Amino acid sequence: MSNDPVSTDPVSADPAPTTIRSLTVLPAHREDVELHTADGLTLVGELALPLGPDGRPTTPTATLVTLHPLPTHGGYMDSHVYRKAAWRLPALAGMAVLRFNTRGTTSPRGTSEGAFDGGTAEQLDVAAAIELAEFRDLPRRWLVGWSFGTELALMHGRDPSIEGAILLSPPLHRATDADLDAWAAFGKPLVVLVPELDDYLRPDEARQRFARVPQAEVIGVDGAKHLWVGEPALRRVLDEIVGHVLPGRAPLPTTWDGPSETAPSAVAPAAAPSTAAQEPTDERGDVEEDA
After folding, report:
1. Which stretches does UniProt call biased (Low complexity) (predicted)?
2. How many domains are contained in the chain?
3. pLDDT tens profile 255-264
4. What is the CATH number of the domain that holds 62?
């Protein structure tokens, strides 16, 4: 059962396909999970798994371990790209989506223990998420980082069990050239989606910075902004994720023939006071729109 509140209206008997919109929730097995860090903290999260023909969870085609935006500016496991990935990708691509709150972060799912550490102690959070994916035998594990989450992926995501990483709107504030060089030596794929109108790092500069990583693919996205707000931007992100993790499976369909639900507009907890300069003022991206 989904942890996200959804409508209880009966599914329409109309056989016509449903257009997938911003608040469309497609079928999946969604369960609350807890992650346990090496320094003794419990982090809260959710794992969304695809369903088989019998309606039971089935083996995923691949696994996304998501790392959310900056919690001191409103980022959390429900930031809209990840929430919608969990709503859509198990059904549309057979993927598992693991979302969780890093230490000290609050969302409707709950609050993870500990306190925000600027990306340092969060190394243990990343390790705990990868460990949970390994423990659950989730196949083909990829990291997906967004903004602050890209820093965590670059600094702490070089685990042998990870097949690669996809970075959304990387600011490269905390991750250094040394981290990029380490990823280059790691040798795993690195896909970098950079909005044309990003507040912090735009495509031309990103290509220069990521040139240190020979296997990095930097993709500039025309018209997009840091928060990927709007259905066209969201679909581009999900298509790029699926297309790189599962070649040949993108673009994703924009309609759905089976049962679906509609979530109410998200109500996010208030963002914590800012503690870091030159970061987005609100990294939830919770505006729901289909434009």
Report:
1. 259-279
2. 1
3. 999 999 999 8
4. 3.40.50.1820
